[in-house]
What we know:
By secondary structure, this protein is of the alpha+beta class. It has twelve helices and 14 strands. A hairpin with a 5-residue loop joins strand 1 (4-15) and strand 2.
Amino acid sequence: MPSKIFHVAIHDLRRKGEDDFEFVVGKNDLKHGSTLTRVVDELHHLYARRASKSHGKFSADDVNFPTQGFLRIYIDGGSKDFETLTTSLMTTLVTQARRKTGATGGHVFFVHFEDDGKQFVMIAIVNDRLGAAITHDYDVSDVTTLDLDGFRFAGRINLTAWANKEERYVGFLKGKGDVAEYFKEFLGCDTTVQDREDTNSLVAALKHFADSQSMVGADRDEFLAKAKAICDVSAKKREQLHLTAFSNELFPSEPDLLLSVLTDDARKINDGFIPDRRALAILVRFKAKTSFWSVEFEREAITLGKVRYNEKSNSLTLSDIPMELAEELKAQLNG
């Protein structure tokens, strides 16, 4: 839930003929009443919950993708002129909508808000849907409402992360084919996928989930090993890993619980990345070295007692070492 809402604007994107669009200016700075706050909270919650998202940064080409330029002018002006920002963005949205066959019209929400100390601008296209209501006379009548659950096009810019020069600060909902490109190009988002980074984020999320579920010993080993096995299949076949399907297979008893951790926006895991096998190894293996030695062993070795860690002395004890190594050590010690 956003802790503070700075500005909200709503304009309409309307189809004009088969392949043309136009925009109609609505309101540029809505009053923040309880209804508007509830709608913004719901959009924020629904966007965060969607699994199929991509993350990236602004394209270096700010001529053909001018969204970042409009935002920079808005921020440099003290984040006050929301009207100029949103009407400029609507012009860009119309341009991109005309180029994509999958584009649709609708009410375009623009929200500048703060959440957990970070500032964001979120843009979502929401359509109407027909519902029904009981009147005071106990008749049934048609009611037109916002279809918040059904929105397909949305994006979000983390202004704080952008200012801090982080690598990923633009996110958007993924669709299929040209539909996926529509909002990506409107935002001017460069989604050059870094599979190693996504895999590292996935590994960290899986470990966090195991901790949150109090998994220890063999249960934890089994969970992480299963995760690695699923990811290995995608890595070997060079197939994309989709977080919803992954959660269903890995944790079928409560997949939504796992999915909520994997899709946490703070992790910025791209849906549909190809796992990096080297980065997956840490799920089942410990590896470390100093200037005097290096060591690598399976996580299962701790569970079976073959490797023991003494926290007080900060030391490892290895059992069942290979005979060849044992003979070499004896020869060294006996001079």
